[in-house]
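QUALITY CONTROL LOG
STEP: pairwise intake check
CHECKER ROLE: data steward
CRITERIA: each record must contain a sequence immediately followed by its structure tokens, with no blank fields

ENTRY 1 OF 2
RESULT FIELD BELOW
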Amino acid sequence: MTKQMVGYFGFGSLVNTATLRTDYIETIPVALKGWRRHWQGRPAVDDPEIALLSIHRYDNAQLHGLIVVDRLENLEMVDERERGYQRVQLSHDDFLVQGRDLPVNLPTELYVYVANPASEPDSQPPLLQSYLDAVMQGYLNEYGSYGLAHFIETTIGFERSIILDRNEPRYPRAIELDQASAELFDKTLRGAGVLF
């Protein structure tokens, strides 16, 4: 069975199952070892004035997220969703599940999507509120308030402006958000240095 399955690690919007568009099998909350999250402008093939999340190798760091266990036949669809990112192969040893090794019945093929180099590496493109809403809701749902705080603490580059598009979302997989969550997210982002 595991030969027909694939796993990919979500560290941003993929953590929010409401944004998933395949008939995936299950999701498993995990920590990825040796990587750190940062904001990065998308390459020119997409929208270079928007910052989205990526990761880079960083010793002794851990990122909370989800492994999405999916059908191998859906991988092309996920690659299309993550265009502008390279699919990088990982191993079971790269992950922890609540301080333990991964279950042995997971797919042997495990990946993470790492953004292509920014077209203007020193630029500070703005954040997109509708994208952040999806990411932050995912962490809140999966990990509670601790997970939301950990997401902020383990991400570099919040000190930039934000496009307030919650009422007219530009993010194609925008989610529904209740008022309490909206207020919590905005307050949390202001505390992280986001310029509203």
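ENTRY 2 OF 2
RESULT FIELD BELOW
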Amino acid sequence: MLFSTAYFPPVEYFAKIAEGFTLSPDGVKPSVIYIEAFEHYIKQTYRNRFKFYAADGVQSLSYPVVHGESAQNLVITDVEVDWSTPWLVRTERAIAAAYESSAYFDHYRDSLFSVLEARPRTLFEFNLSILNYFLDKTGIQAEIRFTGEYTPAGSDTYGEDLRDVIHPKRPNTILEDLSLKKPYFQVFARKYGFVPNLSIMDLLFNEGPDAILYLKNL
């Protein structure tokens, strides 16, 4: 499977990774995934934004990149995170305000914020550290590889191409196809109803160790 890099990836991103992960009496078979390392940066995508459930409904957070508008002309691995403004403090405060009453927030808070506060130089490094964190905490085992060159959309060189499928503004049927468009506990669901496909953070903070059971539809 071929993915674009993502910041706090949505549930569907992890559901596809989990699809290839098997755990049986014969042993563990990790999912093998590829992350596109030769595409250009694209604004208003999961590459530097995510959706979460706050007290006033679904919200989005993003982070700035150093190169501004010209970042779209850069290969994704060359795009740098702009750490010159206090956006990380605002992000951590927003996450805490949204999830402080969730069942597992206190369990994961310090370790997650430690990952964020490491402040890697590039977008690609930053997102990869977050992806690895959530893979570890959900229990989904995956062998992460990177593309050796850019391949056109629809190519099967790296298996199923999800680069343009998983997008905040383009609906898809991933969760339906995996029988995962089902509710789990959310703090504000009583007020606004269940909202599917938020950041994997939403599932982990609310379900904790059971997140893997949800993703594997067990």
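INTAKE CHECK: passed for both entries
DESCRIPTIVE NOTE, ENTRY 2: The chain has a mean pLDDT of 94.
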